[in-house]
Amino acid sequence: MAKKKIKRIAVLTGGGDCPGLNAVIRAVAKTAIAKYQMKVWGVADGYEGLIEDHIEPLSYDDVSGILTVGGTILGSSNKANPFSYLVSPGTRPRDLSDQCLENLRKREIEALICIGGDGTMVSAAAFAKKGLVVMGVPKTIDNDIYGTDMTFGFHTAVNTATEALDKLHTTASSHHRVMIMEVMGRYAGWIALHAGVASGSDVILIPEIPYELDCVAAYVKKRSQKGRRYSIIVAAESAAPRGGKMVVHKEVADSPDPIRLGGIAEVLADELSEATGISCRGVNLGHVQRGGSPTPFDRVLATQLGHHALELLVRGVNNHLVVWKDGRLGSTPLSRIAGKIKTVPKNSELVRAAKAVGTSFGV
Amino acid sequence: MAKKKIKRIAVLTGGGDCPGLNAVIRAVAKTAIAKYQMKVWGVADGYEGLIEDHIEPLSYDDVSGILTVGGTILGSSNKANPFSYLVSPGTRPRDLSDQCLENLRKREIEALICIGGDGTMVSAAAFAKKGLVVMGVPKTIDNDIYGTDMTFGFHTAVNTATEALDKLHTTASSHHRVMIMEVMGRYAGWIALHAGVASGSDVILIPEIPYELDCVAAYVKKRSQKGRRYSIIVAAESAAPRGGKMVVHKEVADSPDPIRLGGIAEVLADELSEATGISCRGVNLGHVQRGGSPTPFDRVLATQLGHHALELLVRGVNNHLVVWKDGRLGSTPLSRIAGKIKTVPKNSELVRAAKAVGTSFGV
Amino acid sequence: MAKKKIKRIAVLTGGGDCPGLNAVIRAVAKTAIAKYQMKVWGVADGYEGLIEDHIEPLSYDDVSGILTVGGTILGSSNKANPFSYLVSPGTRPRDLSDQCLENLRKREIEALICIGGDGTMVSAAAFAKKGLVVMGVPKTIDNDIYGTDMTFGFHTAVNTATEALDKLHTTASSHHRVMIMEVMGRYAGWIALHAGVASGSDVILIPEIPYELDCVAAYVKKRSQKGRRYSIIVAAESAAPRGGKMVVHKEVADSPDPIRLGGIAEVLADELSEATGISCRGVNLGHVQRGGSPTPFDRVLATQLGHHALELLVRGVNNHLVVWKDGRLGSTPLSRIAGKIKTVPKNSELVRAAKAVGTSFGV
Amino acid sequence: MAKKKIKRIAVLTGGGDCPGLNAVIRAVAKTAIAKYQMKVWGVADGYEGLIEDHIEPLSYDDVSGILTVGGTILGSSNKANPFSYLVSPGTRPRDLSDQCLENLRKREIEALICIGGDGTMVSAAAFAKKGLVVMGVPKTIDNDIYGTDMTFGFHTAVNTATEALDKLHTTASSHHRVMIMEVMGRYAGWIALHAGVASGSDVILIPEIPYELDCVAAYVKKRSQKGRRYSIIVAAESAAPRGGKMVVHKEVADSPDPIRLGGIAEVLADELSEATGISCRGVNLGHVQRGGSPTPFDRVLATQLGHHALELLVRGVNNHLVVWKDGRLGSTPLSRIAGKIKTVPKNSELVRAAKAVGTSFGV
Asked: Which of D18, D284, D257, D247 has its CA nearest to residue C279?
């Protein structure tokens, strides 16, 4: 390809927090600066900084020592959609994408690396349509981004949830209780499934497999009759009974990132206590799942994804999402994945393994 | 003293779960069996097992390998008061203490070691008045037992809370948020104070220092104006505004161990969001704080307390609580401490240190 | 297939310790007992128990609660090769494989599940040749088993090594030192590579890429001249200089599992101190890398591998190794993998990513 | 007292690394700046920076966010004694203390806060004699500073050692081995004692109680005969046999901070293997014990010590060491503690508790 070499890039992080963001930023910037002599800019607070022109040079030293640090040194924002931006409350959302492009152009920035979830990728794809060179890096603790088997941050969230479940295990067994832990997963049950298997939870409730309260109650009572006077239940925030609706503790209509104190854990604790006569308690880790230093696995994965994003850019790939698929790095067109969700297959290998070791999915 | 040597003892664990219970049981049993050739019984599920005659011999092997395990191998119960026991709902509580004594006497058990909190000690003191040789070992993650500077389990709970606060820190700083974490502490703010100082929280709310919402809001806004667009608040579940009442999410009148999904964290998140215009989120770790393997510190403390309880018994001390006071082991009469609570002095060294490094107590 | 259904199986664990062994045993036994109504035996201490007839029934309760526990409830042995067994020192090794088969036959055990490394699989393949139905489950913290992308235990070992490297990082940076950490990996550098990338180590030394001392020294000195007065080096125990030999601290000729206090870390610390004039210190975690509760990832992987082994047996597959390949479960004939080693490709994606973020491989 | 108020202070950190140093620096600086409107300087690399005039202003922002970070932002040095400083190899050490005082005077710095171990305090006391206002804050993971019951960093080191011992436990029990872990403690066995009790180690070897190899061997063999085919031994680096000498792997005569790969663990592993015929392995965590984020306990202790040092200065106390004694903060004249060591009393409560639960001290 007779492509002009890209020499000036910008990077942004969008959406909810996710351990490993800094590791990606570091890998992108170090590779760009040291290996390819590029100049790198960091956009503050996701697309908001692109709109507001908060775009600063990012040096090699700026990204040194951030590999193990949770969060993002660039900041993020949840709501900023440059193609439909709410400038002030009560007004109509405006398309500020040209303003964004202008902010890049005046710095002669040739490519934008967008680290984010599905919402971030929808905007990235739209920018690509307008001619911007774009590369996406998938980010979500929920692991529900289509086209990639694994996203960084997921693993750290599973660790945090499993550690909490391990702790609940000892207290539940001493006190003859049912403990229900709600974990994140707005559309998919990946965290609940993995943390549930990893902790040896008795019941796993995920949105992909609507549960029946009677089944859960019967399972818990059967355990109790067998002398196992406690049970651990892990439930995705989006788990719902067959024919019923997902419990939303508090409607936060304008937020893509609502935290629900309560939600499924609280509701189910009440319902199960009544149905079984056994003391049931709910716990919700909330945003704790989004924080902390990434696990070694996530640091390695994030480093690889960031490095690969740069390598693809250099090789002239454009408008793609970097992915980890079938045990290796790759990429897929943003247009193919934007707006889609990867859910847990009802009969996946892991679901079957969980069932084989005695776990109930409430059906 | 011409005391007959004690040769047969029983041990029970009462009240809510607490990391280190097994370490105490192990120290008591190993010291009794190996050093003093005693015979040891374990009472199942706290005073409930004493009433129901669930009392089984405990061997050296039974307590091997349990040092690092959370929970209690004996089981516990929260509600069982032998002097006022609710045999069945709708009936009047009965005094079953003689039945308990008979269950011990028929096994020729001469002394009872009660590991528990204030409720457990009140009953222990009452048994002592009826002539039973009793030794108490203080247990509470809340660290509010009168007469002892430190209780095992407290330290592990502070660790769990601090780890979660550390995680919230990274996500709050990336997303410009106020995070409010509710921690346990029904009557005292020890966990909130220690975890707050350990995590460098910006605001610490404890029941001993009633807060003013305006002060908290002003503090958060001032930080925001200085460019620190996030704040971490840690609140004891029993924290309350000046002149206001403690938030109780759900009245659980019959339970000494209610879990509140929500409570102060949820209420304060709403109030602060409104007062500051900044996005505030609440998290409540709930029973996760009661579980898990004890920290090395708690294992050492629990081992020492258990060992000391036995040594005191052997030396003829009776009706005492083993304590850690002024940097050393000791004991104090149960009658002197039962029914009292140790709260955080408003002007303690640690409160002053916290203020000096910039922490607000909301006043 | 008109195969007779397998109804009686035995399971053994061979070779060095590895976090996740219990998780595999649990998955195998629970699946066999609860899903397929099989009877399960556990063989004590690997092939040694097969020779010595230490084979006991394994119940559902026996494997409950072991998921999170490190080690193996069955015990293991390193040296026992049933086809060449050293009955007593000074005598000639004997082939006791028929005795092993007889010990299985007299219990009517139809199939043997061997969880182990390459040595264990060589014997398993030899038993298969003699007609025994055999299924292998790959186990090694070194991750060097051929035919599988990932083995359980590897991940936990990488975590342990990375946590230690994170700790060395802070002390090295405060004291202007070079810290060299030796990690396990007898034939392959997987742990060093992953822990090195995860910790942001400055230099990674693996046997697949022979290093040059001059390069390492130059790299360290260059960092020092740039004002970074410390460096972290992670070295596989089997790393060796170009043209030189692997450092073996102590010849333990008869042991497949030698621990070397010292080895590469110690030797390199001396050499580098002299070459650079900077204070260099070595650390070797030794067997700490083999212990502890498996990470959530390893618990999930081990559960899946154990479950899949059973499913394959039920479907009539024989003489295979269960593998995790290209992001999914599968299996491969034992004959195809026994005696082979999976090493780090010199130009693998991860090696290139490590180089791109500034890591030296000493060449 | 009609003392002039101190308005300008400097702080330095000396000696080996220790988790919590940054927490002290932060508490000192924040208290000084925000509560007392002082100006604060940081001295680079301990006394070396005082000699070399590397003294820079320290702002409130400089110390924000360092509470949880291991190491010291100021840097440290092990060898620099201003009263006997080796300017260049081969020359005679010189007294550069006047040069140090001049470097402080020219900035009008009125007081120096020295955070360090015994060596640091000896110099601090000598500066005090020359008229400098000095306040010492005790620092050592070894916990052997005279006059204080507890030093920050000790607790974190015990945690690190205990976690490693917990991991060795699982692998030792699966493989029927004796594992010997060497921990730090150059003159005292505090880490070995606490980590040994916390991990339930079978044998604890400390310099205060010279061991007999025969006793250790007999203990291990007795356990083996009882069917417990493994033992865990924790040994302070300075532990020595009765009548024998401490093992020093490598003489590093000029270094107050030698790391010994090998040492007692390696030597004892050889001797015990021979004496018992059981496979014995040694591990030495080395500098890993000095690193990492401080535990919540150490963060709280360090914060309190730093704050108290400032408060004492303000109240006119001079030439003292801040201490934690009998469960509370206090201080003691530097002249009373410099040059002394706090060792483990042979018959301390904790030693007796350890013995009572079955631990051997090798005698």
From this structure: D257
Query: Within this chain, do residues D214 and D107 fall inside the same structural domain, yes or no?
Result: no
CA distance B173 to B177: 7
DSSP A226: T
Q: Which long-range contacts (CB under 8 A, 24 or more apart) does A89-96 make?
A: A96/A51
Q: Is residue C280 located within the same domain as residue C298?
A: no
Query: Does the beta carbon of A21 lie under 8 angstroms from any beta carbon of chain B?
Result: yes
pLDDT digits (tens, 9 = 90+) for D26-39: 999 999 999 999 99
CATH number of the domain encompassing residue B189: 3.40.50.460
Indicate if A53 belongs to the active site: no
D68-93 pLDDT per residue, tens: 999 999 999 877 899 999 888 888 99
Distance from C-alpha of A176 to C-alpha of A114, rounded to nearest angstrom? 48
Which residues are CB-neighbours of B227 under 8 A, at least 6 positions away?
Answer: none
- Full residue range of the structural domain in which residue D110 is found: 8-151+295-337
Q: Is residue A101 part of a domain?
A: yes
Q: Is residue B345 part of a domain?
A: no
Kindly state whether residue A360 falls inside one of the protein's structural domains: no
Q: Are residues A41 and A138 in the same domain?
A: yes
Alpha-carbon gap: D140 to the closest alpha carbon of chain C (Å)? 13
Q: Which of B26, B295, B350 sits opposite D159 (nearest CB)?
A: B295
C346 shares contact with chain A (CB less than 8 Å): no
Residue A306 and residue A237 share a domain? no
D65: domain CATH number is: 3.40.50.450
CB contact under 8 A, C262 and D259: no
Tell me, yes or no, if C153 comes closer than 8 A to chain D by beta carbon: no
- The contacts of residue C262 (CB under 8 Å, 6+ apart) are C249, C250, C282, C284, D261, D262, D266
CB contact under 8 A, D166 and C76: no
Q: What is the mean pLDDT of residues A284-300?
A: 95
Query: Which tens digits make up the pLDDT trace of D328-353?
Result: 999 999 999 988 999 999 999 999 99
Would you state the pLDDT for residue C263? 87
Report the number of distinct structural domains present in chain A.
2
Cβ of B307 within 8 Å of Cβ of D155? The answer is no
**Maximum CA extent, chain B:** 73
pLDDT at A87: 84
Residues B296, D199: C-beta atoms closer than 8 Å? yes
How far apart are alpha carbons B61 and B63 in whole angstroms?
Answer: 5
Co-location of B29 and B120 in the same domain: yes
Residue D168 — φ and ψ, nearest 5°?
-60, -35
Interface of D with C in 256-285 (CB under 8 A): 259, 261-262, 265-266, 269, 281-285
Statement to judge: residues B104 and B180 lie in one domain: no
Backbone angles phi, psi at B315, to 5 degrees: -80, 5
pLDDT tens digits, one per residue of A55-95: 999 999 999 999 999 999 999 987 789 999 988 888 899 99
Chain A neighbours, 3+ Cβ pairs < 8 A: B, C
Q: Are C191 and C198 in contact (CB under 8 A)?
A: no
Same domain, C25 and C146: yes
Q: Does C168 touch chain D (CB under 8 A)?
A: yes
| Residue-wise pLDDT tens digits, B280-305 | 999 999 999 999 999 999 999 999 99
**Residue C290 sits at the chain D interface (C-beta within 8 Å):** yes
DSSP, res D74: T
Look up residue A298 and give its amino acid.
D
Residues B169 and B115 in one domain: no
Name every chain C residue with its beta carbon within 8 A of the beta carbon of A356. Answer: 27, 30-31, 34-35, 307, 310
Are A259 and B179 in contact (CB < 8 Å)? no
Q: Which residues, including other chains, have CB under 8 Å from residue D55's CB and lie 6 or more apart?
A: D10, D41, D42, D43, D44, D49, D103, D104, D107, D109
Helix (H, G, I), strand (E, B) or coil at C220: helix
Residue C239 to residue C183: CA distance in whole angstroms: 10
In a domain, C304, yes or no: yes
